[in-house]
Protein: M3 family oligoendopeptidase
Organism: Paenibacillus profundus
Amino acid sequence: MSYIPEFPKRNGVNNFYDTKKLEDKLQTLLQQDICSVSELERWLVEERLLCAEVEELITSHQINFYRDTKNTNKRELYLYYQTDIQPLLTKYNAEFDKKFSNCPFSKLLEDEKYGYMCKVRLEKSKMFNKKNISLTVREQELITKYREILAGITMEWDGETKSYSYIKAMLESPKRQIRERAWRALSESHMLVKPAVDRIMNELVKLRHQMALNAGFSNYRDYVFTLKNREYSIQDCYTFHESVERYAIPVWKRLAKLFETELGIEKYRPWDLSPCTLQKSPFNNLIDLLDGVEKMLGKTDLYFQERFQYIRKQGLIDVEERKNKAPGAVCFTLPKAKNVFIYSNFSPSFNALIHELGHAIHFYKQFANESGVQEQYLREEVAELYSHSLELMLMDKLDIFYPEHNEYKKAQREQMHRAFSMLISPLAGDLFQHWLYTNPYHSPEERDAKYLEISKRFQYSSVDIAGFETQIGASWIESFHYFQYPFYKIEYAISQLGALQLFQIYRENPEKAITLFKEGASMDWNLPIADIYRNTGVNFDFSEQTIKNISEFIINIIEDLN
């Protein structure tokens, strides 16, 4: 059963909203008189409901397209909503921000309930420039083209044509020759599409730089930091990069030595970066995966299990690997229906599935909030806290997939290795983007060279990459975040620090940690990040000492599991 509905057709095209009908609704809301605080609060509810309705339609068509990028009708519908409806909504959202900011009653709203939203809307109103609407439309067209290119990659494998995601799954094979073969095949596929992807990135950097200039900023990095209303500074990010390099990377290298011994190799090569110590697949098919994760959730918390059972029953999930399906994983929100849709096109993996389930549980807790979830105000540093935390809290149930004791211990070790990697690789990606957008006139060759340089300092610091520098320098093209979600990387590392703190509580008192998880996930999005973290029992802290402590915590667990 699939949730994604067939929308009514108009002139032979699925077109739930024509632009005139939508604009009439938006204009009516814009012209509405507001004469008191209570009327402003009612207006905010009406605005949220209308925007939720439109955003759900846009998201539904995005899901349809991602699931089958070669379907011409789905592509045209997706682009229609991206190039006709979304720009109209963007235009009116800017008008709504202006109306709200200029309304005298907005200053009288309760700060605890509306303070963050007031701040965001005032900043967005200042930054809005009509010239950027057309640039945003072009940006979405380029992102769509990138998605189509990656989704269309296929490779020959043992006489059969396989998808990119299928070959990527081979990187976790316990057989080193298979890992190497897969790594080389993926690298070759990168080089084949790289000229086209380079052209896309060249234009994205150029138009994003122009967006920043239009908004009065000198570069896109500074523009995004203000647009995101980040509760930390650009300098804080650089300090974070340096602290991880100082305290986490030495531990990362120690882990490499441990796994080199386990794998029986003299040194890590690029195809050894995943631990790859498990000798068999944890499940035989997709149903086994879903059933196994459901059991893990049931042994953790009944609410977690109930939400997953509901998602499965309603068909709100597609985690099957197949050709012509867009790469990546995401938990889409459907705000009108107060539902989610879990999507991924990695190899069938309990890690990716559990991660997106963490988002789903968070969203369902937010849907139950009286304030109503508004995704544009949900900060990624908060959202990723609960996805990472769920992965860690389910780690002690991996015996469902690995009943043999030694394999169970190996699975836990590999899970901790992945958790640690989320402190390292995302920061390399963040630093890469700082460079991209503060040096907007760089060449593709300079871009690859910078990515290689940063990778050698972070995730590849423990790897012998001799002879593969070109391939690693080009490998940034497989990360859809750089294209679709610029500057969405550091949030993974920040939230992983919080999740590991919660995991420390879980190891001492599982019930307490689960209660804190649910309480934190239910907190009003309007609160400062530090308050939401505090209500989850952890600190919003990426200081040197915290990084040092967490690094030692991880290496101790892994060594204890040996």
Residues 176-214 form the longest helix (39 residues). The domain at 9-142 is CATH 1.20.140 (Butyryl-CoA Dehydrogenase, subunit A; domain 3). The chain has 21 helices and seven strands.
